[in-house]
Amino acid sequence: MEKFKKILKNRKKAVIIVVVVGVLGFFGWRFLGKKEQSPQYQTAQVERGTIISTVSASGQILTSNIVNVTSNASGLVKKIYVKDDDKVSAGQKILELVLDTDSKQRSASAYSSYLSAKNNLDSAMVSLWTLDSAMWAANRTFINDAVARGLPVYDPTYIQENDNWLAAEAKYKNQKAVIEQAQQAVSNAWLAYQQVSSVVTAPMSGILTNLTYTEGMTLGGTSDASQRIAVIQAEGHPLATFNVSEIDIPRVKLGQKATIKLDSLADKTFTGKVVTVDRVGSVTSGVTNYPVVIKFDTEVPEVLPNMSATATIILESKDNVLLVPSTAVQRQQGQEIVRVLKDGQEQTVVVETGLSSESQIEIISGLNEGDLVITGTVSLTTTRQGGASPFGGGVGGMFRIAR
């Protein structure tokens, strides 16, 4: 009996020891788990450098420095005088046609209109010369009469009483306007005749490309629609148009520099500048865009109309300024703040910012070069740490990255 009591007493002691060890182990485990939850930071130093603020936009190459060679005539192509990539001069023959009956009639009518306009111009010139002679004759009479009467030539009363020469001068000036009108009529008639002429000529000087006809082919122009025969590209820098969003357009100005990339020439980057800014814009599917035209800095023969392009417009740049990663700056209650690590402790600092790029922000005040700013927080939330808990179960845990 005494032996049984002794065994029972030892068992109670063992149970008490197990319970105490378990309780101590549990609270120790919880305490160590909390220790592991101290945050780990992603940081970056405040540094000095250059920041460039930009706007990106997509668009396409415009049809610039290019003129179509067209004809309203119809008939058989008799002779081709040029080939692709030839350098041509204004008025140079491109091809010759054998006109069909309809085009012959239209060509004859157009030439008749040209001759009529030319005759009207000649008649207007004769009238001008006649009026010029009459004006000077009236002026001489006016001056001689004034001298004979001993009156000053520029006396207002005398001029008013003897204004025949002023009327002659007015008729002469009016006839000069008639001449200008007649000259425009001749030019218009000649251009109309060229469009239905059997000979197609170059409208301007440049490099001829896209010649789409050859001898023996039929040209099917009409009085209402012209056929494109070729294209002449003059010397000049390409132009491209880009759609800028309503958020960015207030910052885009004439003369700003830009870099341009084309899908078809992916290995090349071109430079240019903003030459026009449309601040009226247009709305498509509820989205407002504002066209901006950029002119290339150099001639680029391989750049063709309607090619897709992307532009990066340089709005502003600054040198030797304090910079932090964009992820370091947050906005709280209308203020911009940055979290800073000092002596291992996190502090919140109110800052004033300036320019921003895709990855950096300029700091005007609030930070110093070399300060360590927090760009993100890596915290470890541990449910069981350092092996199994005193009460069984495995090791579990997770981590998260918080900004």
Q: What's the order of the H and E elements?
A: HEEEEEEHHHEEEEEEEEEEEEEEEEE
Derived from helix and strand composition plus strand pairing, the structural class reads alpha+beta
Largest sheet features: 6 strands, antiparallel
Supply Rg. 44 Å
For the record, what CATH class of the domain at 66-233 applies? Mainly Alpha
Q: How much is the average pLDDT? A: 82
User: Count of helical segments?
Assistant: 4
**Spans of at least 5 consecutive residues with low confidence:** 381-403
Q: What would the CATH topology of the domain at 66-233 be?
A: Helix Hairpins
Shape: elongated
The number of E-state strands comes to 23
CATH architecture of the domain at 66-233: Orthogonal Bundle
- How widely separated are the two ends? 70 Å
Strand content: 35-45%
Residues in helix, %: 25-40%
Describe the model.
The protein has 403 residues and is an alpha+beta fold. Among the domains are: 55-64 and 240-318, Efflux pump adaptor protein, beta barrel domain (Elongation Factor Tu (Ef-tu), domain 3); 66-233, Helix Hairpins, CATH 1.10.287. It has four helices and 23 strands. It has helices at residues 2-35, 101-148, 156-161, 164-195; strands spanning 40-45, 47-61, 66-71, 74-80, 86-88, 93-99, 199-201, 206-209, 218-220, 227-233, 239-245, 257-262, 265-277, 282-284, 287-296, 308-325, 329-332, 335-342, 345-350, 352-356, 360-365, 372-382, 397-402. The strands form four sheets. Strands 1, 17, 18, 19, 22 and 23 form a six-stranded antiparallel β-sheet that branches. It has a six-stranded antiparallel barrel with strand order 2-11-15-13-12-16. α2 (101-148) runs antiparallel to α4. The relative contact order is 0.19. The model is unreliable at 381-403 (pLDDT under 50).
